[in-house]
Amino acid sequence: MGADAGADSGEGAGQFGAARNFVNTCIYRSLITLRAADIIARGATFRGHWKAFTKGQARCGWIMKPMHDLLGKVALVTGGSRGIGAAAAIALAKAGADVAVNYRTRSKQAEAVCSAIRELGRRVMAIPADVSQSAKIREMLSRVEKELGTVSILVNNAAVAQSRNVDQITEQDWDEALNTNLKATFLLTQAALPGMRTQGWGRIINMSSVAAQTGGVVGPHYAASKAGMLGLTHSFALLLAKEGITVNAIAPALIETEMVTANPRANPGLIPVGRFGTVEEVASLVVLLAQNGYITGQTINVNGGWYMS
Ligand SMILES: NC(=O)c1ccc[n+]([C@@H]2O[C@H](COP(=O)([O-])OP(=O)(O)OC[C@H]3O[C@@H](n4cnc5c(N)ncnc54)[C@H](OP(=O)(O)O)[C@@H]3O)[C@@H](O)[C@H]2O)c1
Fold first, then answer.
1. Which of 76, 78, 103, 301 to mutate for ligand 1's pocket (most ligand atoms within 8 Å of CB)?
2. Can you give the residue range of the structural domain that contains 19?
3. Same domain for 25 and 58?
């Protein structure tokens, strides 16, 4: 009896279990169908939004297309054969500019930068000139203007950084630093001004350094040359503000280039973010300053937090 009763209740439980499975399956399938319908409906909504977005975008003609707003402008980047200058030259070309890539001795590296720019469809020339010599500056400007046209973006980037202990700095080191880093910035700006004034449009971007603000890791001769660039920036910016010409400085530190890797005093431990910066992180600011007509007389710091303004 006990066994029969047990069998009965087992069979009942079996039937109940089958019914429960059936109901569960139905619920599960309905949920899947509902979810699929939901996904399809959301897809349709998303397609609708996307269509409206792309239609609006086509009307405005901005997002999704590379910004080529420097199209038709000619940029001269001094010290464009490597490091920050090379990255700036390529970034300006990506933004539409034709570029003259200046260098002092490394023609192969300058040619490699030119090839990258040519592949972007821009006009480009490599131009050797020691910017510490005023005659070479004038020669370079006239060659660039003859070949590419009026220079409207000037990036004063070429520099020497002879890392020295205080008592080892010679008069020759001082002259080389000041002539290459500071005097050249003044002479190049003066030489490029007539063309910019005729166009009523110009961008002068001076590559200063955190050394102008903190002293840095090269020496007082270098720091003085870079601080002088800030004075030039302020003075030219004020004098040219009404003529459509902006003048700004960028103060980097420590960016992973030969200048830094060759200097044993430069180490990432000095930088609050804990690493060296990349050349692209500086080049993007060069493009920003070339594109913006309302930033002038400023120093843009890109230094991983080493100097906070
Ligand atoms: N890297 C940093 O952490 C850092 C920090 C602060 C400021 N900066 C500034 O950023 C700029 C670029 O620095 P970088 O690190 O890219 O330097 P880099 O790697 O040493 O490159 C220096 C560039 O300047 C050119 N050059 C040097 N003397 C020249 C002269 N007399 N005439 C013409 N070209 C000359 C070199 O040409 P060749 O290739 O032909 O030698 C090269 O293209 C400099 O103004 C530097 O002071 C750099």
1. 103
2. 1-65
3. yes
Q: End of a domain among 24, 44, 65?
A: 65
Q: What is the pTM of this model?
A: 0.83
Instruction: Tell me: do 46 and 78 sit in the same domain.
Output: no
Site to probe by mutation for ligand 1, drawn from 172, 255, 278, 281 as the one with most ligand atoms within 8 Å of Cβ, is: 255
Ligand 1 mean position, distance from CA 83 (Å):
7
Backbone angles phi, psi at 126, to 5 degrees: -95, 135
Alpha carbon of 158 to ligand 1 centroid (Å): 5
Tell me which residue of 168, 126, 162 sits closest to 144, measured CA to CA: 126
Residue pair 208/299 in contact (Cβ under 8 Å)? The answer is yes
Residue 276 Cβ < 6 Å to ligand 1: no
Distance in angstroms (rounded) separating the CA atoms of residues 256 and 259: 8
Using one digit for the tens of pLDDT, what is the confidence trace for 200-259? 999 999 999 999 999 999 999 999 999 999 999 999 999 999 999 999 999 999 999 999
**Nearest C-alpha to atom 43 of ligand 1 is from which residue?**
79
CB–CB of 191/138 below 8 Å? yes
The domain that holds 131 is classified in CATH as 3.40.50.720
The alpha-helical segments, DSSP class H, found in the chain are: 2-60, 83-94, 107-119, 134-147, 171-177, 184-199, 211-214, 220-240, 258-261, 279-291
Q: Is 307 part of any domain?
A: no
pLDDT tens for residues 72-115? 999 999 999 999 999 999 999 999 999 999 999 999 999 999 99
Rounded distance between C-alpha atoms, residue 249 and residue 297, angstroms: 8
* 213 and 253 inside one domain: yes
Q: Is the CB–ligand 1 distance for residue 236 below 6 Å?
A: no
* Cβ–ligand 1 contact at 140 (below 6 Å): no
Same domain, 5 and 153: no
User: Which residue's alpha carbon is at the smallest distance from atom 20 of ligand 1?
Assistant: 259
Q: Which of 127, 217, 259, 278 to mutate to test the pocket of ligand 1 (most atoms within 8 A of CB)?
A: 259
Task: For residues 298 and 177, state if they share a domain.
Answer: yes
